[in-house]
């Protein structure tokens, strides 16, 4: 009979790091160029004016302006009057 407990294996002990997904800048907030607007898996939100999509589906701003959510589209509307704007504004 063993006097010490044997070194057994366990099925626990593995845990993955959180993904920190979701909206980072909400409607009406100011976005600087390169600012992350949403981190997502798949295209829950789609890029609109002044917004690009990264290879992991992250949406980020390419210009300075206010974030505007319009359905599934996300726009960054320029705050500067001299900056070109889309025709629908």
Give a nutshell description of this structure.
With 89 residues, the chain is mostly beta strands. It has strands spanning 22-23, 30-31, 36-39, 46-47, 51-53, 59-61, 65-70, 73-78.
Brief descriptors of the model:
four-stranded antiparallel sheet, OB fold (Dihydrolipoamide Acetyltransferase, E2P), 89 residues, four-stranded mixed sheet, rod-shaped, 0% helix
Tell me what you see in this structure.
By secondary structure, the protein is an all-beta fold. The protein has a domain at 22-78: RNA polymerase II/Efflux pump adaptor protein, barrel-sandwich hybrid domain (OB fold (Dihydrolipoamide Acetyltransferase, E2P), Beta Barrel), CATH 2.40.50.100. It is built from no helices and eight strands. The chain has a four-stranded antiparallel β-sheet with strand order 1-3-6-5, with no helix packed on it. β7 and β8 (73-78) form a beta hairpin. It is rod-shaped and about 85 Å long.
- Strand runs, count: 8
Strand order of the largest sheet: 1-3-6-5
Low-confidence blocks of residues: none
What fraction, in percent, of the residue positions are helical? Answer: under 10%
Order of helices and strands: EEEEEEEE
The secondary structure category is mainly beta
CATH topology group of the domain at 22-78:
OB fold (Dihydrolipoamide Acetyltransferase, E2P)
Architecture per CATH nomenclature, i.e. the level-2 architecture of the domain at 22-78? Beta Barrel
What separation lies between the terminal Cα atoms?
Answer: 83 Å
Looking at this structure, what is the CATH superfamily of the domain at 22-78?
RNA polymerase II/Efflux pump adaptor protein, barrel-sandwich hybrid domain
CATH class of the domain at 22-78 equals Mainly Beta
Outline:
rod-shaped
Tell me the fraction of residues in β-strands, as a range: 25-35%
Helix tally? Answer: 0
Average of pLDDT: 88
User: Main β-sheet, in a few words?
Assistant: 4 strands, antiparallel
Return Rg in Å.
22 Å
